[in-house]
Amino acid sequence: MAKSIAKQAETKTAATSKTVFNSDVEKSVPASQPSVQEPEKIEISIEKKLIALFSLQQIDSQIDRIRIIRGELPLEVEDLEDEIAGLETRVDNHIQEVDSIEKQMHDRQISIKDCQTLIKRYEEQQNNVRNNREYDALTKEIEFQTLEIQLAEKRIREFNAQITTRKEEIDEAQRILSERRNDLEVKRNELADIVTETELEEKALMRKSEEQQHFIEERLLTAYKRIRKNARNGLAVVTVERDACGGCFNSIPPQRQLDIRLQKKIIVCEYCGRILVDKELADSISI
What we know:
four-stranded mixed β-sheet, mainly alpha, Helix Hairpins
C-alpha cells in the first residue's frame, strides 16, 4: 500500500514537471520571435516595395523609349484615318445631294411636259369657245402654264449648276482621298516595320512590368501611375543625386536623405511628389 502511494506521487510529480517545462517553452518561443522577426519583416517589406517600384519605373522608361522611337507615326496614322473617314463621308453626302437634285430636276421635267400638254389642250379648246370670257380664261391658263414652264426651266438650270458644282467637289475630294490613302499606306508600312523591330522587346518589357506590379499594393500602384501620368518625362520614382531630387532637382534636407537611406517608409519629394529612392539601392537593381 505504501509502495503504491509512493509510486502515484512520483508519477504526479513527473507529469507536473513536464507540464511546467512545456509551458516554459511555449512562453519563450512566442516572446522571442516577435521581438526579432517583426521589425525585420517590416523593413524587408518596405525595401521590396521600393525595389519593385524602382524596377517598374526602369521597365516603363524602357517602354517609353521604344515608343519614342516610333515617333509621331501612330498619331499621323490616326490623323490620316480620321481625315480619310471625313473625306469619305463628304463624298457620300455630295453623292446623295446629287441624287436628290437629279430627282428634283426629273420632277421639273415631268412638270414641264404636263404643262405643255395642258397648253395644247387649252389651245384646242380656244378654237371651240362660245364667248370672249371663256377665251380669256383659257388664255390666262395658257399664260400660267407658260410661266410654270419658265419657272421649271429656271429651276432645272439651277439644279444643273448645283450638280456641276457638287461633281467638281466630289472629284476634288476623291483626288485628295486617293492621295491620303496612299499616304496612309506608306505610314502604316513604316509603322509596321518599326513595330516589328521593337514588338518582341516591348512585349517582354510589358510582361516584366505586370510582374513587378504584383509586388506593389493597389494604393501605391495607383499613386505611381498618377505621378507618372502627370510627370513630363514619365518619371515617378527617382534617386537622390547630389543631395537633390532626381526629378525636379530641388535640394533634399540631410535628415530626409537619412530617412530615405534607412528605407523605413516610402518618402516622396515635397516639391514634385515623386517617390524617392536611395542611389545605392537603385545601383543594386538590374533589369
